[in-house]
Structures are given as structure tokens and as C-alpha cells.
């Protein structure tokens, strides 16, 4: 019996453009981005880091509900999103609110999603996305379907879905990438490998050395990317998008990343399963720190500019919280009305009952 596993695994190297010191180490792969694009990527990462800090504080004050921290994953989330077009369709996981915001979801609605308000799940017209999935892996098969739909309609658009290392251990993951490969769906599957599924390390979830290599069995392209390097994530996603719309099939992108905070704000304590050494090691790789060095070296960024941006971001967040606070509380009748175009007779009765209670 010929042994091929080792050969295959050895072929999956980590794709990097910008190293930890903020130096370009892979000039050939440098994407075609204007100075303004580069600055915009930085703005989005800084905004998202501040939003994360504020969201954690708001959650602790009881002013937000469900929240999954994002700090550390900005390059992975926003580098990939920056490679998308407006027509592309995002199927996110619960940690992927930043991508939705930059795809057009108003921030106050993201806060309403956190509070479990139905308005947080209603994408505005023209924002091609569904709300964040809580069931691990469920969005992956759906993404294959959306990508197939784009192919059948001959549209210049892709579906992109996000999950974690834990998601890549789910049955839905294998089913989704296999289906997408078989039917040539215009899809991109991003697995943000932040090393842990809550407290379970990735080594305990799979015997595979990389998640990217899981693409091989599905007959699709797979690439492992330095998920703390926003340029590498952008370049990989951009190429995957082009291949998808050119009829060359779907791509699996594994981004190697880390979440600096807890799993969610519901009582997780990462010190029980991560060492300080590990945290320190990943802090050295911080996506914002290295991109800041790169931009400063090019004369495109300054401390002053960043401070101004931070102040502006805090104001925007404040205004969005206010807007969320001013949104009328959801009523039982609202839930019935948004579910049905025409209510079944039993619910009609219930609706009348609730409508009377609510008017009091
Ligand atoms: C089908 C399913 N099983 C279990 C859970 C509980 N659960 C919530 S988050 C999580 C870990 C997921 O880890 P990963 O995919 O690595 O994503 P990360 O949170 O690290 O971004 C689990 C097991 C769930 N939401 N859905
Ligand atoms: Mg994970």
C-alpha cells in the first residue's frame, strides 16, 4: 500500500505576505491595492477592535445579549470581506458580525441581533447575507446551495461562509464542501482556525495536520493562510473569488488565527485551557500591530490619524446603541407577522388575544 498522507500534508504550507515585523516577505504575491485601499483595511480593523472592546463593556453592563469576541481575528475576518463584491452572499457564524457590518448591515441592527430582537436578523434590501448562524456548521451546506444558485444563473457572484476549526469537525462541513466540489458551486469556505472550539484544542478535534488539506477529499482547492496577515487573507480570498466566477470551482481557505478574548461573554474562562505563553506568542502576531508598522513605514498612517479614528468610532457606536435602544421592543404579534404572509386560523385567534394584551 502506497503511503500518500504525509506527501499531501507536506504540501500545505502557510501562505504569508506580511510577517510579524510588518515586512513584505512575498513580493510576488502582493495584491494590487491602492494606498487608499490599504488605509481603508486598516480603518476597518481598528474600528472592529474598538467595537469589540465596547461590545464587551456593553455586555458586562447588561446592555447587550449574546456576544462572541473578535479581537485577534480582524485580519481573517476583514481581509476576506474586503475581497468581496456587493453581489456576493455572506453566510456567517456567530463570531462574524464585523463582515456583515462592512457588507452593509447597520451597526444598530447588529446590536439588536445581540439582544435577540428580530430586527437584528432582517438584512436591509441589497445586503446579501443571512444572520449569523449559531448551530455549528449549518451554514456550510447552505453556502454550497447559494454558490450553486449563482452558477446556474450565470451570475458574477460568490457565496462565502465562515466557520471555525470546530465547525470543520462537523458532518455538515464535509457534506457542504463535497457538494460544492461535485457541482462546481461558486463558493468560498473560510475556516477560521483559532486553535480552539470553546476549550477543545484543534489537535484533539482531528488527526489532520491542517484543515486546508480537507479540501483534497472534496476535490477542491485548499489553502492555509496566515490569518494574522490581512494582505495574505485578502489575496487568497480574491483569487478564490476569481476562480469561482471563472468556473474553476470552490476553495477552502484555512486562516490560522487566535481569539484574544473568551469564547463568548457567557462565562467562558480561557485561562483554564490556554497558557499565558500561548497568549503571548499570539499577541506577537497581532494583525493590527503588524499592519500598522507596514503602513507607517510607507508613510500612510500616524498615531494622530488612528486616535481620531478611535474617537469617531466611539461616537458611531454610541449613536448605534441609542438607535437600538429606541427601537420598539418586539411583541409576540410581531413574531407572528414576520413569519407568515397569511396567518393560519389558529394563529389568527392567538394573534387577536396577544394584540389585546399588548394594547393594554
Ligand atoms: C451543532 C452544535 N453543536 C454544539 C454547539 C455548541 N458550541 C457553540 S460554539 C462551539 C465551538 C465552536 O468552535 P469553532 O468552530 O472553532 O469556532 P470559534 O468559536 O472558535 O470561532 C460549540 C461546540 C453548537 N452551537 N452547535
Ligand atoms: Mg475555534
How would the blueprint of this fold be written?
Blueprint: H1 5-10, E1 14-15, H2 35-60, H3 74-82, E2 89-91, H4 97-103, H5 107-114, H6 138-153, E3 159-164, H7 171-183, E4 187-193, E5 196-197, E6 200-201, H8 202-205, H9 214-218, E7 221-226, H10 230-245, E8 251-256, H11 276-283, H12 287-297, H13 303-326, H14 332-339, H15 345-359
Parallel strand pairs: 1-7, 2-3, 3-4, 4-8, 7-8
Antiparallel strand pairs: 5-6
The site of thiamine diphosphate has 14 residues, from strand 3 and strand 5.
Which labels suit this protein?
single chain, 360 residues, alpha/beta, 6-stranded parallel sheet, two-stranded antiparallel sheet, 15 helices, binds thiamine diphosphate, binds magnesium ion
What does this structure look like?
The protein has 360 residues and is α/β, with parallel strands linked by helices. It folds into 2 domains: 7-327, Rossmann fold; 330-360, no CATH class. 49% of the residues lie in helices and 9% in strands. The chain is built from 15 helices and 8 strands. The strands form 2 sheets. Strands 1-7-8-4-3-2 form a 6-stranded parallel β-sheet, sandwiched between helices. Strand 3 (159-164), helix 7 and strand 4 (187-193) form a beta-alpha-beta unit. Helix 6 (138-153) runs parallel beside helix 7. The longest helix is centred in the first third of the chain and has 26 residues, at 35-60. It is globular. The mean pLDDT is 97. Bound molecules: thiamine diphosphate and magnesium ion.
Amino acid at each position: 500500500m502506497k503511503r500518500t498522507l504525509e506527501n499531501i500534508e507536506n504540501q500545505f504550507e502557510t501562505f504569508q505576505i506580511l510577517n510579524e515585523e510588518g515586512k513584505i516577505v512575498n513580493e510576488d504575491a502582493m495584491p494590487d491595492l491602492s494606498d487608499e485601499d490599504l488605509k481603508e483595511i486598516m480603518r476597518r480593523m481598528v474600528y472592529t477592535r474598538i467595537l469589540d472592546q465596547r461590545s464587551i463593556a456593553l455586555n458586562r453592563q447588561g446592555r447587550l445579549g449574546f456576544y462572541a469576541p473578535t479581537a485577534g481575528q480582524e485580519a481573517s475576518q476583514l481581509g476576506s470581506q474586503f475581497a468581496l463584491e456587493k453581489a456576493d452572499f455572506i453566510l456567517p457564524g456567530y463570531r462574524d458580525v464585523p463582515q456583515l457590518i462592512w457588507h452593509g448591515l447597520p451597526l444598530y441592527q447588529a446590536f439588536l441581533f445581540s439582544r435577540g430582537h428580530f430586527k437584528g436578523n432582517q438584512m436591509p434590501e441589497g445586503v446579501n447575507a443571512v444572520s449569523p448562524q449559531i448551530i455549528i456548521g449549518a451554514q456550510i451546506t447552505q453556502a454550497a446551495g447559494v454558490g450553486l444558485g449563482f452558477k446556474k444563473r450565470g451570475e458574477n457572484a460568490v457565496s462565502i461562509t465562515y466557520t471555525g476549526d470546530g465547525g470543520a469537525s462537523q458532518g455538515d462541513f464535509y457534506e457542504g464542501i463535497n457538494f460544492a466540489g461535485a457541482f462546481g458551486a461558486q463558493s468560498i469556505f473560510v475556516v477560521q482556525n483559532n486553535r480552539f472550539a470553546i476549550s477543545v484544542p484543534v489537535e484533539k478535534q482531528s488527526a489532520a495536520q491542517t484543515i486546508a488539506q480537507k479540501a483534497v477529499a472534496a476535490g477542491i482547492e485548499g489553502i492555509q493562510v496566515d490569518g494574522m496577515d490581512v494582505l495574505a487573507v485578502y489575496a487568497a480570498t480574491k483569487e478564490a473569488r476569481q476562480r469561482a466566477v471563472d468556473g474553476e470551482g470552490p476553495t477552502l481557505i484555512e486562516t490560522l488565527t487566535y481569539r484574544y478574548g473568551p469564547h463568548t461573554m457567557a462565562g467562558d474562562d480561557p485561562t483554564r485551557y490556554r497558557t499565558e505563553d500561548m497568549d503571548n506568542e499570539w499577541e506577537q502576531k497581532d494583525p493590527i500591530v503588524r499592519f500598522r508598522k507596514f503602513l507607517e513605514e510607507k508613510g500612510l498612517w500616524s498615531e494622530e490619524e488612528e486616535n481620531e479614528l478611535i474617537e469617531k468610532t466611539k461616537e458611531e457606536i454610541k449613536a448605534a446603541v441609542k438607535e437600538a435602544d429606541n427601537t420598539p421592543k418586539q411583541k409576540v404579534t410581531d413574531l407572528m407577522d414576520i413569519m407568515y404572509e397569511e396567518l393560519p386560523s389558529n394563529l389568527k385567534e392567538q394573534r387577536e388575544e396577544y394584540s389585546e394584551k399588548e394594547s393594554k
